[in-house]
Amino acid sequence: MSGKFVLVAALIVAGAAAAQSKKFTAPRTPDGQPDLQGVWTNVTITPLERPANLAGKEFFTPAEARQYEKDTVERNNADRRDGGAQADLNRAYNDAWYDRGTKVVETLRTSLIIDPPDGHIPRKPGAPAGLPPGFGKPPEGPEDRSLAERCILWPTAGPPMMPSFYNNNYQIVQAPGYVTILVEMIHDARVIPIDNRPHIDSGIRQWLGNSRGHWEGETLVVETTNFNDKTRFQRASENMKLVERFTRTAPDTIMYEFTVDDPATFTRPWTAQIPMKRTEGPILEYACNEGNYAMAGMLAGARADEKKAAK
Amino acid sequence: MRLKLVALLGIVGFGIAAAPAWAHHAFAAEFDAQKPVKLKGTVAKVEFINPHSWIHIDVKDADGKVTRWMVEGGSPNALFRRGVNKDALPQGTEILVDGYQAKDGSNRANGRDITFADGRKLFVGGSNPDEQPNAK
After folding, report:
1. Chain A partners of B81 at a C-beta cutoff of 8 Å?
2. Beta strands at B108-110 and B66-72: parallel, antiparallel or unpaired
C-alpha cells in the first residue's frame, strides 16, 4: 500500500518536472508568427539598478522578496503626511492615483539589469549622468520644461520600455510584415516592419528612433537606431543602438529584454530583463496636450515667483 | 529619508530618476508649499483628462459667497482600470480638499488628500494592477 503510494507520488513529481522543463511554444498568428498580441503590463517595484545594500546578491529568496516589497510599498506610500510642507507637496497626490505596483519581478532578481552581473549601468567615467542640465528650472517658456511635461516623450515609455509610477501598459498588434506596440505613456504607437528592410538614412533622427524587427525562432528581435539628440535614454548619445527581445514564455508572460549599446556613454553594452504580464484592456487614450493645464500653471508660477523676487 | 531617496534616484540616472523628479518638479513649479489650503466644497464638474484630472468645486465662504476652485489630481487612466468612472463623483457631492494653492494665487490647488464629508478617502479601495486576477 505504502509502496504504491510512493510510486504514485514519484510519478506525480516526475510528471511535474517534465511539464516544467517543457518549453512553452507561443500560439501562431494566421500568417505563422509567434503570437505576442494582447495588452501587457511591465509594472514592478524591482529597480533598474541593484540597490547598494543588495550588492553581490543577484536573487532574493522568496522571504526576502516579500520583505523588500513590504518596505518599498511603505516608502512609496504617498498617503503619508510626515516630513513637512515641501515633502508633502512632493507627494503631490495621494496613493489612489498611482499604479506603481507592489511586487518584485517573478524571477526574484534584485535588479532589472541582468548584465553586467553587478546590476549597474556601466557608465564611462565622466559620461553624463543624472538629470540633464537645467532640468526643472523656472521656465521662461514651455521649452524649458521636460519632454514629459510637454507631452512629447515619457522617459520610461521607451524604447526601451520600463516601468514607471503609473500607466505601465502596452498593446501589441501583429499583421503580416509588421508588429505595432501601442504605449500608454504618452500615447505613442511604434510600427515595426519585420521584413528585413534597412534602417532609414542616418541623417534622419526621430524621438522614438527607427525600429526594425525580425524573428529569431520564438523571439522577436527589434533593433532601434536613429534617435535624436533630445531623447537621450539614460543620457546616452543619439548614436545609441538598442536591441529588444520579446519571447512569449508562458500564456500570460512575454519575457522582455533590452540591450543598450553606446560606446560614447557606456564602457560596454548592458542588458535588462522585465517580464511583461497579460493584463486587462482596453488602454484608455492618454491624450496629453489637450488637458495639460499644468503647463500654463507652471509658467504662471514662474512669473509669480519673478514678481515676488522683484519686490 | 525623502532627500536620501531622491539623491539615490538621481544617481541611477535620468531614465528612472525622471519619473519621481518629474512629479516633484512639476508640482513645485505649479504650487506653493507656503500656501497650504483646506477647502470644503461641492463638486461642480470633473474633468477625467490626461495628463492630470481636475475636479472643479464650489467653495462657500462665511458670507455665503461662492468661489469656484480647480483641484488637480493624477492621471485618470489608473482610476479607470480600477473601475472608477464618472459616477464616482457626481455633481453636488461634498468633498474636502487638503492641498497647496497655485503660486500665481489663482483658485487652483493640488489635491493632496481628498475626502468625502464623512471622512472616507476619495478613490481609495481599488486594487493594484499587479494584484488583478488576470495579471498574475
Report:
1. 99, 280, 284
2. parallel
Look up the CATH architecture of domain B33-131.
Answer: Beta Barrel (2.40)
Whether A304 and chain B come into contact, CB under 8 Å, resolves to yes
Q: Please name the residues between 187 and 216 in chain A that touch chain B, using a CB distance below 8 Å.
A: none
**Which candidate, B27, B77, B127, places its Cα nearest to that of A164?**
B77
- Chain A residues closer than 8 Å to B105 by CB: 304
Locate the domains of chain B by residue range. 33-131
User: Do A252 and B121 make contact, defined as CB atoms within 8 angstroms?
Assistant: no
Single pTM value for the model? 0.85
Q: What is the rounded distance in angstroms from the CA atom of residue A6 to the CA atom of residue A3?
A: 5
pLDDT at A11: 52
All cell numbers assigned to A104? 518584485
Listed residue (A284, A293, A245, A274) closest to A109, CA to CA: A274
Summarize pLDDT for A252-283 with one digit per residue, the tens. Answer: 999 999 999 999 999 999 999 999 999 988 89
Closest CB to B30 among A169, A184, A301:
A301
ipTM for the predicted complex = 0.81
